[in-house]
Design brief:
- This protein is α/β, with parallel strands linked by helices.
- Helices cover 47% and strands 17% of the residues.
- It contains 14 helices and eleven strands.
- The strands form two sheets. The protein has a six-stranded mixed beta sheet with strand order 7-6-8-5-9-11, with helices on both faces. Strands 2-1-3-10-4 form a five-stranded mixed beta sheet, sandwiched between helices.
- α3 runs antiparallel to α11.
- The radius of gyration is 22 Å and the shape is globular.
- Bound molecules: (2S)-2-hydroxybutanedioic acid.
- The site of (2S)-2-hydroxybutanedioic acid has 8 residues, from loops.
- (2S)-2-hydroxybutanedioic acid binds next to loops.
- InterPro entries: DctP_fam, TRAP_DctP, TRAP_DctP_sf.
- This is DctP family TRAP transporter solute-binding subunit.
- Pfam families: DctP.
- Belongs to the bacterial solute-binding protein 7 family.
């Protein structure tokens, strides 16, 4: 028995079932910035549950929602340093890592509908974009959808002239900056977690986001008007620390890949449902007026914003833009 103990202590010899059980689980810290009751929040929680089930408890995913752990910029750094293992930042937040091509998703009116978007994210163009993250120590696992954005402010946003002079909170994307300037508004980059306070204290006048983000952050309480412009897209790339991912045992990685596929379905199914439900709730709150743009208003907005495609081609790369046109065409 003593020899067996020695061998075990040296890591040699078979483990009994009880000893294997006693192995501490692999912990995946998954940080994100939105509420749990959103497409991303639900998908992250689903992933955590299925990862535990499919690995028989060998993996424990700890989800930290609502910028509890890190805000936008910090979470990206934390991932690269390995302080957290998984994130799902919006596609608008990857350019600061030096992968500017991701800002193609921010081009206004680049997708006419969710089907066009899916052709990109489910196809070779989407895969190639994820592949560009590898040199940054990051592996892209999936795209999660959150639908199209609406505009909000404290005055009605009907014509293009209505945006003039407004300070509009945006994510850290140069394309979104150009988009706001094309409307003669002033873009202001702010972390998601700071947006509600900035709208409340008036340091910014308005913003853009899908209705579910607007509602779950209670931005509608401090925004009197919402316009259903659906001018741009918001989606996520689920990313892991590459060294961590590559170092996982093969069977664990396979189980997590399966859990991720299921979570992706949850995100994508929740997106349109949650955004519709959020609009109903915003309307019911009586705090915000919702404007449905007329065909002419939308056409005017589109004409003003399409200029951004050309303007930003140098930054994003014309090839990437052409790839998207082709994939969606
Ligand atoms: C934002 O910053 O507006 C969004 O990216 C937040 C999110 O993760 O949906």
């Amino acid at each position: 028995a003593f020899v067996r103990l020695l061998l075990l202590a040296a890591g040699i010899g078979p483990l009994t079932a009880a000893q294997a059980q006693a192995q501490p689980p692999i912990v995946i810290k998954f940080s994100h910035v939105v509420a749990t009751d959103t497409p991303k929040g639900k998908a992250a929680d689903h992933f955590a549950r299925r990862a535990a089930e499919l690995t028989g408890g060998k993996v424990r995913v700890e989800v930290f929602p609502n910028s509890q752990l890190y805000r936008d910029k910090e979470e990206m750094e934390a991932l690269q340093l390995g302080a957290v293992q998984m994130l799902a930042p919006s596609l608008s937040k990857f350019a600061p890592l030096g992968v500017k091509e991701f800002e193609v998703f921010d081009l206004p009116f680049i997708f006419d509908n969710p089907q066009e978007l899916q052709k990109v994210t489910n196809g070779p163009v989407g895969q190639a974009l994820l592949g560009k993250l590898e040199t940054r120590g990051i592996t892209g696992l999936a795209y999660w959808n959150n639908g199209f954005k609406v505009m909000s402010a404290n005055r009605p946003l009907k014509t293009v002239a209505d945006y003039q002079g407004l300070r509009m909170r945006i994510q850290s994307s140069k394309v979104l900056g150009a988009q706001m300037r094309a409307l003669k508004a002033t873009p202001q980059v702010l972390a998601f977690s700071e947006t509600y306070a900035a709208l409340q204290n008036g340091s910014v006048d308005g913003t853009e986001n899908p209705p579910s983000n607007l509602y779950t952050q209670r931005m509608h309480e401090v925004q009197k008007h919402v316009s259903l412009t659906y001018h741009g897209y918001l989606g996520y790339a689920v990313v892991v620390n590459k060294r961590f991912w590559d170092g996982l045992p093969k069977d664990i990685r396979a189980a997590l890949t399966q859990a991720m596929a299921e979570a992706t379905q949850v995100a994508n199914e929740s997106a349109s449902k949650d955004n519709q439900a959020a609009l109903v709730a915003i309307r019911a709150s009586g705090k915000t007026q919702i404007h449905q743009p007329s065909a002419a208003e939308r056409a005017q907005l589109k004409a003003a914003l399409l200029t951004v495609h050309k303007e930003m081609a140098g930054r994003i790369g014309d090839e990437t833009i052409q790839d998207i046109y082709q994939a969606t065409g």
